[in-house]
Design goal:
This protein has about 170 residues and is α/β, with parallel strands linked by helices. The protein has a single domain (about 5-160), classed as 3-Layer(aba) Sandwich (Rossmann fold), CATH 3.40.50. The chain is built from five helices and four strands, in the order βαβαβαβαα. The protein has a four-stranded parallel β-sheet. Strand 3 (about 85), helix 3 (about 90-95) and strand 4 (about 105) form a beta-alpha-beta unit. The radius of gyration is 15 Å and the shape is globular.
Length: about 170
Amino acid sequence: MAERIYRVLFLCTGNSARSVMAECALARWGGGRFEAFSAGSHPTGAVHPLTLQLLRRFNYGTHDLRSKSWDEFAGPDAPPLHFVFTVCDQAAGEVCPAWPGQPMTAHWGVEDPAAYVGPLEKQERLFRDVYFQLERRIQIFINLPIASLDRLTLQRRLDDIGQARSAAPAE
């Protein structure tokens, strides 16, 4: 019997940094068991240049990445989702669309590196730190025994992951 593929949507306001990083990390680490997407409630229309720089540095392909609206995933023709994770505080507080298939949801908020104002070196470090925090949460998520957990236990685990913190590895 073929293993189930879980569809996961990462949401943020602008869909230019955090949600895009999470989409890429899940696509890499999900081992073919997950299909990753990202979107924003108010997409900026472009992926942040430092997001692209960071992802390229970590050997991700970036040519297909784009900033898109969550409306693409809320319509009747959208792929049914199994999980929806907000990765920023603004999207967590917004009224989300009714997702087809009633996916499980959780808030995995992290600081917005695109909003940082200051020296470029510190902003680049913040992008990297946010990426590693999201990557750590995704690694915990992909190792959950999803199929064997009841819905309430799985929800509790998803919520707990949103509290997981990770120190970035030293360069």
